[in-house]
Structure formats: structure tokens, C-alpha cells
Amino acid sequence: MRQKVQLFSVTLAVLVMTSVTAEPADDIKPPMGYRNWFHVNTMIVDKASPLFDTLGGMHNVHVNSVGEAALKKGGPYPDRTVFVTDLHEFSVSDGSFVMGNRKGLAVMVKDAKKYAATGGWGFQFFAGGDPKKPVVTDAAKQCFECHVPKKDQDYVYSTYIP
Amino acid sequence: MRQKVQLFSVTLAVLVMTSVTAEPADDIKPPMGYRNWFHVNTMIVDKASPLFDTLGGMHNVHVNSVGEAALKKGGPYPDRTVFVTDLHEFSVSDGSFVMGNRKGLAVMVKDAKKYAATGGWGFQFFAGGDPKKPVVTDAAKQCFECHVPKKDQDYVYSTYIP
Fold it and tell me: Of the candidates B48, B51, B93, which has its C-beta nearest A5's C-beta?
């Protein structure tokens, strides 16, 4: 279960960035239509979590059609696979957790050659989902370091839940 | 917020059925490919909810392409619109809620003529997502009654969250 929590350590590293920089680490853009991509899983980081301050929210993970078959096998992923975490606020009422506004979009793009230094993956996080607000400037340090333990799943924490 | 909780009262009505009947109320089948349909929203009904015994779980709502534009307008929905609630177990670890196995699929299908007696919607719930385990035998009583208050949204509780 601890491993599951680590799933979003990439986001943790990203969210602790306080500045909205003009020098993103790459040319990754927020993908279009990701809410129609395969729904991989959902996770909520709640107030009781030590990660809440940086990671709190409702995380919905999607993968594009390029990576869907690989997800079901547990990787490895072909080039042009894209994962998106659609991170939203949530509220709690009468014991139910309800989705709120978007906090941001975390994106992983596979290109074995281009991103060879970070396991073949490019990483970016867009505050509020805004293409003008990328916050990752050093993907190796802010993102990839936390994915290294998942090398046997091609550095992807998410697994297929039928 | 109370209204949001009512969103799943249809499922409540369904889940309190204890028998897996051989006489479903309609010919609705679990749709294929719904995890690639537009992701409408997520809700978790947790242990603290008075609805937990019957409704507990992680609810991911999807709508097919026929109904997507109508969702964004708040209805009404054209015939052949389908909503699916993909209901899963969840576990909690260190304050994070993690998705588990499927508990069931709740399905709403729009056909104004065929389902005129229930607001133009057909309703079904499949235990475990199994096409052989429909549990709704009286959609008017088990499902539609709880949707009547949402007549101004074409009897749909879910709303579009950008």
C-alpha cells in the first residue's frame, strides 16, 4: 500500500515548486481529450495523509490508446504512450467524498530516445491544467527519482485494475 | 451537497435487493468500452456515510459520446445516451483511498419512448459487472423514484465538472 502512495510522489515533487517558471524542462503540452482515455484508477489523498499538504486531492489516472495494451500487461510501454493524472479538489459531506475543481494535470510521455536520461519518460505538471503553467524544470530530480523503484513496471506506478 | 449524495440513491435502491433475479426489468446489457467514455466525476461513499452499508465504494461515472454534449449543457439527453457508474471497493492506507475490485455497474439508458414510464430512462445494475447478474426488476420503484427530484436535469444527478 505504501507503494501505491508513492504513485504520486512525482506530484509531490512537482507541487512543492512554488514558482511558475518560464523554463519548463521539455516541450510537453497538456493533452486534449484525456477524459476519454482509458480510466486506469482513482486515488484520494485525504487530510489524514502526511502527503496532504502537497498531494491532497482526488487523482484520476488515464492512459492513451497507445499505452492501453501495455498497461494490461504491466509494461513496458511503447513510445508515444501518455499517462495523465487529472487532479481535483474534493469536499466531504455526510461521509461521502465529492469531486471539485481541477488542481492540476500531471503528464508522463514515453519517448525512449528523447527522454533516455529519465527512463524514457518525459514528465510535466500543469497548475490548474493551464498549458501556460508548467512547473517542472528538472524532471530527473523532481519526478524521475521517485519512479526508479518501479523500473520493473517501466517506471509506472499505476497498475491495471480490471 | 445532500443532493450530490442523492446521486447514488438509485444504487442504494438497487443494492438492497438481495436476490439475483432471473427476471430483469429490461433488456439492458453492460456496455462495452465504458472506461474509454468521458469521465464525468468520481465519488467515494465512505464508512462514515449512513449509506455505506448499501452504497459504500468508489463510484466513477462515465457517459457515452451520444450524451457528452448534453452533459455539458446540463441536459436534456438524446436517445441512446448511456451513463455508467463503475463501482469499486476501496481501501484506506495512511490517509489515502485506493481503488480495489469492482462491486458492480449501474447503467442508465435513454430512450424516451421505450422508457416513457420512467422519465425516458432505462435502469439496470449488474452485480460485479456480470451481465448474468442484473438485479433491477422494477426500475420505477427501485431507481426512478429517486431521480424524480432531478427532473430539471432530465433526471440525471451528475453534472459537468470542467
Answer: B93
